[in-house]
Design a protein that fits this description.
The structure is a homodimer of 558-residue chains. Chain A is α/β, with parallel strands linked by helices and 558 residues long. Helices cover 30% and strands 25% of the residues of chain A.
């Protein structure tokens, strides 16, 4: 072990939210540590907080400034919240990207789509106990069960001891597709002594043991058998095991399988290509399936979260690629609605109900199981890995906090480390040593916008308050010419008394202008301020709102 | 029975959503029916669909145009989604408003706050079998259990037969506050023969029998007994029974009760004033309670749905009226999170977790029961009322549809009647006879804005796309003067290449202007169109977004 070297852990994203995972490990003397990054994912915006934003990812500025000491990026699995930001951020980091073959297909595409060189990807074929060197770290990919093939925990051996990073996982001994959870494997990982376990927290509030993917086969098959019209099912495209279960239920009932939605086709072909998916029933292209009687069809479609542009939403609105739902058809939501998406999912379900479609959701528990470890499963994993320190990751603050308590109750040192908390893992008193400014970056079109830059806040103000635009012209002698002109955006044109709101504002500004002193007229800011005040007063009294105001002063030159 | 008279039912709101209940009944010859309105509630907007809107209510234009034939407005109970629009809409309807005393307190306040005359309220002291005449209708208030005192179903006797309107209800024989569900009463209402039952549908997807409010007393008392620091609990302020259960658990554990939040104080005082609430433990004002040791305090606070301005949110952000939470305090969410509010509630729970507060939610089922009838309870109610026709109301389309099926399975005629569906209830073939344009009105400040007026849609476009404002001046000879000036709202000032976006747009417009022909320059619309195109092109290539554009052309007069 190097003198004065330390082993640190620093979450830049994912420890304070569900999504945008990005975790730094460092080893070396303070200020000279070598780093690896585990995962580089996105979070999804909502109208409530980030209107118009495409995706959100962690601010990696801190790591980017130290990129000469970054020895590798390790991707645990191919979910968007773990790999989705790779294309957007790789150029700021520039290290080799290690992942297993199925994950590599997605990671390569992310780089290609962003115009980056996909040769940065290092395909890892051999799982732990094989390890790969990245600076002072030896990293192995230990297969773990989750809701996507080839999910892996990482075994990170360092001069200061072994760290285990669970990645997202559940304990599933019969996962249908991909490797089962292997108790003996995790026991043996723990046998060597584990300094710290960085562990998924998303389901810590669920008190019952999780259920296996394999438990769904029977109820889904029974449901498909009972369906009379067309059968449609939606789930996360990345849940390849679920797709297989659904497709097999279709095949067993003499139905032809059709994949609808780009992500659905992409995931199945990636899974077949990488060898993780075998024996998937033959599929027919949507356009070719239109002649097949509806009672012999089963559509697997994207959009389980109510996304407006996905196949589920398209079908709920009418015909999509030649397919249209009718009374007597059955639509299965083989999925959980993620908090925040309830309204969007209900919108689709109501539209389907209006078409007379029979809607089956997973509320009763028969048609969906979670991909994350519930509290009893977390406790089981802790018991196999047996770490000195438990550092909960991937969860909101309340999840991390609860998970810390679960660990402490079992005798581990629990460390609560939300984003930006640099934790020293080795030494006598492991715990937080420094706070890094960890932020969120919004991808807005092609621009990277900081969460606190005010750009998105300005947009929300426009949405909440509406906007008055006032244009006026000041001549060479600082005399205000002609009348001002007012345009409204997102405000009613007429007041409740049926007066023209823009004209009322123009009238009040016309009264104001002659009363302004020269110092106000000469100064754009002061002039704008005076006009803004009047425009707001008129709106407040006429429509009870105080809108945003933009004043455009054009000054004529001599 | 009058010749050619018919009995109709017309939902204007509440049959297609959860919220904004408003149901018309009419009796008489076609085109000459006399009407009553049952309930006049609001729905709540969200940023996703109605940014900046205050509340939403049904468009009552159809009824307003026939107000000379409106004989009364009947309010089933005091929840906002049943009475909240009374102040905003009463002047358009102008009929007497019948309600029971506790409800009357709230209804009067609604009228007063809107500057209307509260003497329009008729306080009904005697429940069914007492009835009140409103044109051809004899209406009685039949007490029914729900999550607010004095909830009532309506027994509406007409020359064509009896109609029963359930209002919101559950079957609770021990509701703590207010009247228990009285099987014999509802049996006797049904005994006379019921033509149609218009029945609450919100919980039709819940397959297990509902639970009584009284089942919460023991677990809540045990929780409060185990709390060591300050105890805080939030629930709907209108759930007076819950407030009593919570307060009694506090008193039993030697805690002083403090009500935080305007609605909380208002509801308790209305309940005491109207006599429905007795033996409520004494409360101390927040300001006076600051000296009481925290382990002897129990705060009952508003904001169970994550509302940003309510007491829960204020406490999660820091000190509120002299009270501040600390590690070791306990915060109980004695409530269900309404779909769409999950993110707001999680925000508060995470903020509380950061303060080290122990959060207890109702997920495990110990600390909250629903106020609505689940499917088995609906079936029980159907069996007591025994109608010929079942018309489900208060629910999204999928709820109404499912409820129709439940009724049909039990041998009733089920009628699916979403908002705007006029249903003839009498005659040989009861069912829809006409479709009325039923809309939603947004209260935006003080303005009433139609959902399809485009105003709110424009605001959402601003929020999604941002805005470029371009000002330019055209002189007396149709020559464009000087440079244009560009202002940005909700867009990044700098491009990713660190160029000034507004300047780039100005430059491109400067290149465009000399190339425009006279017909374009002379025409404001054509000029704006040409400039908009250029502004969007620049933004598309520089930041990957196509913003909204407002062009302000000032024309100098000769």
């Amino acid at each position: 072990m190097t003198d004065n070297a330390r082993l640190i852990y620093l979450p830049l994203g994912g420890a304070g939210e569900i999504g945008m995972n990005a975790y730094v490990y460092g080893y070396g003397p303070e200020g000279k540590e070598r780093y690896i990054l585990v995962d580089i994912g996105v979070a999804f915006p909502d109208m409530d907080g980030q209107p118009g934003v495409d995706v959100i990812f962690a601010d990696v500025t801190w790591l980017s400034e130290r990129r000469d000491r970054l020895d590798g990026i390790f991707i645990t699995h191919a979910h968007e919240d773990h790999v989705g930001a790779l294309g957007h951020l790789w150029s700021k980091l520039g290290a080799p990207v290690y992942c297993r073959p199925f994950t590599a297909i997605h990671a390569s595409r992310k780089l290609e789509e962003a115009g980056q060189d996909p040769t940065a990807i290092v395909r890892i074929c051999d799982p732990w106990p094989a390890t790969y060197d990245a600076g002072p770290f030896k990293v192995g990919f230990a297969p773990i069960s989750h809701s996507i093939p080839e999910a892996s925990g990482l075994v990170i051996d360092t001069p200061a001891g072994r760290v285990v990073h669970s990645g997202d996982f559940k304990i599933d001994h019969q996962p249908i597709v991909g490797e089962p959870f292997d108790d003996a494997l995790w026991q043996s990982i723990g046998d060597a002594g584990v300094l710290a376990f960085i562990c998924d927290s998303t389901n810590v509030f669920s008190g019952h043991p999780g259920r296996s993917e394999s438990q769904l086969a029977e109820p889904i098959a029974a449901l498909v058998a009972s369906a009379t019209g067309m059968m449609v099912a939606t789930t996360f495209a990345s849940n390849v095991a679920r797709l297989k279960t659904l497709a097999e239920a279709g095949r067993a009932n003499g139905r032809t399988i059709v994949l609808l939605g780009r992500a659905m086709k992409r995931m199945v072909s990636a899974a077949v290509e990488s060898g993780v998916l075998t024996d998937f029933p033959p599929v027919v292209a949507p356009e070719e399936a239109t002649e097949i009687p509806r009672e012999n069809l089963m559509l697997l479609v994207t959009g389980s979260q109510g996304e407006r542009r996905a196949a589920s939403a398209a079908l709920s609105r009418g015909s999509y690629l030649g397919h249209e739902l009718k009374a007597g058809d059955t639509f299965l939501f083989s999925s959980k609605t993620i908090p925040g998406n309830e309204v969007g999912v209900a919108r689709i379900q109501n539209a389907l109900a209006e078409q007379g479609v029979e809607i089956v959701d997973a509320d009763a528990g028969f048609y969906h199981v979670s991909g994350h470890a519930n509290r009893p499963d977390l406790e089981k994993a802790h018991g196999l890995v047996r770490p000195r320190i438990l550092v909960p990751n991937h969860g909101e603050y309340r999840h991390l906090q609860r998970h810390v308590r679960v660990g402490e109750a079992a005798g581990m040192i629990g460390v609560l480390a939300p984003n930006g908390t640099m934790v020293q893992l080795d030494g006598n008193a492991p715990g937080p040593v420094e706070h890094i400014e960890a932020g969120r970056i919004y991808l807005d079109g092609t621009a990277h916008v900081g969460a606190y830059d005010g750009v998105i806040r300005d947009r929300m103000k426009l949405a909440l308050n509406g906007l008055v635009v006032v244009a006026l012209v000041v001549d060479e002698d600082d005399a205000i010419l002609e009348d001002s002109w007012v345009a409204l955006r997102g405000l009613p044109e007429m007041t409740d008394d049926n007066a023209d709101l823009a004209e009322l504002i123009e009238d009040e500004i016309a009264e104001l202008l002659p009363r302004l002193d020269n110092r106000t007229v000469e100064d754009d800011d002061k002039l704008a301020e005076a006009i803004t005040r009047v425009a707001r007063q008129v709106c407040q009294s006429e429509i009870g709102k105080r809108p945003e105001v933009t004043v455009m002063v054009s000054r004529l030159m001599a």
